[in-house]
Design brief:
Elements: H1 10-27, H2 29-47, H3 52-82, H4 88-124
Helix pairs in contact: 1-2, 2-3, 3-4
């Protein structure tokens, strides 16, 4: 007979989620870099007095990159667990999720640059 998992309480579920963020930050160099870049972007947003819509876009960019990095890290760990030998499909899956993070990071950098330059021109005149 298959055993059912007991339901997780809401506080436990949040605890597991935060543990995932903390463990990823401890283990993954890329995630640490992305967190540092996010902090710089948030500080720049304060100094450039971004408008509410601009703030929303910056937050979307940051969350998009961090979420994809968390998914990438989880998938890499899962693949390492289930496919310890090098396999072409495992390599493809790892490369594809890494590419998703890269595409998001490039898009975030370009979008953020537009917002920061625009805000800088507005703040200091053109």
């Amino acid at each position: 007979m298959i055993e059912k998992h007991k339901k997780t309480s809401l506080p436990d579920a949040f605890g597991y989620a935060f543990a995932g963020i903390i463990n990823t930050a401890k283990k993954e160099r890329s995630f640490k870099i992305e967190l540092a870049v996010a902090l710089v972007a948030l500080i720049a947003s304060v100094f450039l007095a971004l408008q509410p819509v601009e703030w929303a876009l910056i937050l979307i960019f940051i969350v998009m990159v961090l979420v994809l990095e968390l998914i990438n890290s989880a998938l890499e760990s899962f693949i390492d667990l289930t496919s310890p030998d090098i396999h072409p499909l495992a390599k493809y899956a790892k490369d594809a999720t890494a590419a998703a993070v890269l595409v998001a990071a490039i898009g975030a950098a370009i979008g953020g640059s537009f917002l920061f330059v625009s805000a800088g021109l507005r703040l200091w005149g053109s």
